[in-house]
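Sanity check

After download, print the first record. It should look like this:
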Amino acid sequence: MLRSLSLPVPLILALAALLPHPGESAAQDPAVLRGEVVIQGEPLPGAMVTVHRVTLEESGPFDSIRSGADGRFEFDLPASPSGGTSHEIYFASVSIDGVLYFGAPVSDAAALDTLYRVEAFPVDTVGARPADLPVAVRNIFLDPTGEGDWFVTDLFEVRNDGVTTFVSDGNHPVFSYPLPQGAFQFEVGQSDLPEDAASFSGGSLHVMAPIPPGERMFLIRYRVPDLEITLDLPGTTEQFDLLAREPAEIEVTGLTDRGTQQVQPGQMYRNFSGANLVNAQVLISPSAGGGLNLGPEWIAVLFALLLGGAGVVAWHQGQARAAAAAGGAHGGPGPMATPVASQSGSGGTEPDPSRMALLLEIATLDEAYAGIENPSDEATQRYQQQRAMLTAQLMGGDR
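Expected structure tokens:
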């Protein structure tokens, strides 16, 4: 994040372009991205691979080819990637069985010396019984609304330890999990969960998005009418933390009181935690003191720091994404989907996960717009506006 610069970023970049760069010659070698698509560790021939380009001036998919018999592909890039100077960034995506996978962003020319990899997985269709997945981490934050009820910010990290991507049969959720009875006003936060792939009914969260091998973060928010809360934790929950905004005059059964901790400057939370919980239940109730008294404050910025992973998998559903690109699903620019899952990166460096989330939004938007036949001027304008907003966020380093 650019915090200490006093000059405008565009001026700094313009000045940087005038400086000599060691080892730079008048005639540079062509920039070539060489990679492979693999599934279960084996080459995947015939996969349609799309390369996306992101710069300060423009961004979008610029070329597509099918992988060869050995799963390999090769693209001549219009310029060498250079995230530090020109902010030229590339990444490749491939759609397999309706699921969009893509590899790590390439922002340094040195990464071109390494074989780029996009890893896909076979699908396992889930029917009436949702996938049984352990919850690796669950964090719940309680904040008062000032209206007598309570904000709940609920973060799940679920883990698929298998070798297949769980997908819905179209009628049943891939993953379901109970939420507090009486919860209302649900919304999906920026995480690995697309807004259009989540529903709330029968007191549970239902996820329709594919869940590939590795870890996935789901962030949801809702309200509860009071602090009489029962949390059912089916299956295995490896780490659970409940954080209540101080002064947290509550009693919690089923967790250990860990004292007070600072989540952000000036924001103190009482932490209750537990580990390796199996089919557990956590009971929350106000103590005699009366509960939390401070005004509401959203803490969504915290979760940008919690997202992790080196590759990205998206829920790829053509018409839904096309509608979103045209503005029908969201009514204008805004986050569409930010899934992140652990996969192999390129160059041996773990990329900034918040940048990965933005790259996913860009790739999903590109896929949606490309699927619109004869897009209207309005659809094109919305696409360009949304693209420009995401690119500005990516290049500005504000995430």
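If your output differs, re-run the checksum step. Summary of this record's structure: Residues 377-396 form the longest helix (20 residues).
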